[in-house]
Amino acid sequence: MKQATRLSVATTTVFYMLCGCMGYAAFGDAAPDNLLTGFGFYEPFWLLDIANVAIVVHLVGAYQVFCQPIFAFVERWAASTWPDSVFISREFRVGPFALSVFRLTWRSAFVCLTTVFAMLLPFFGNVVGLLGAVSFWPLTVYFPVEMYIRQRGVPGRSMQGICLRMLSVGCLIVSIAAAAGSIANVIEALKVYKPFSGPC
Question: Where are the transmembrane segments (predicted)?
Fold first, then answer.
């Protein structure tokens, strides 16, 4: 598990850094959200199709992983609030699967609502940038660093402890700067906002 996590984080970091740094080096502030189509490049179609399939596969999997805590919370809350409800508690066995009408209804409604919400926001890249900036430091840096310090018993005044805290503070500063930039982009996009209009 540790090797798989290291490999996946390293690979993701390399690809994101390459896209970000090369895009900025080539286009500066005019770098589009979508490097493949952001400046009118639609040929060859097969390359764009492969890239879009990869994005769909990535987002469908990520959406499921990130939504599971929300699904579990609402389903536990509903079961404790209405313990005698047949609609909430009844499950149908279909082979090895247990299907619940409540889960199917609730999860489908949630996906539909988030899809409509995403369609309302034509500046999707700016919102994703803001969410990424807000979640980067606590989830990717702060909690893992603090867990490592506690697990390993790293003294706070040791060189390793100081370096880990400096890394955390440095990443916090980067996250704050990224969030400020994303907020500025969202404000700019809101000035010309039209619901369901597509990219701004």
Answer: 7-25, 45-66, 97-121, 127-145, 166-187
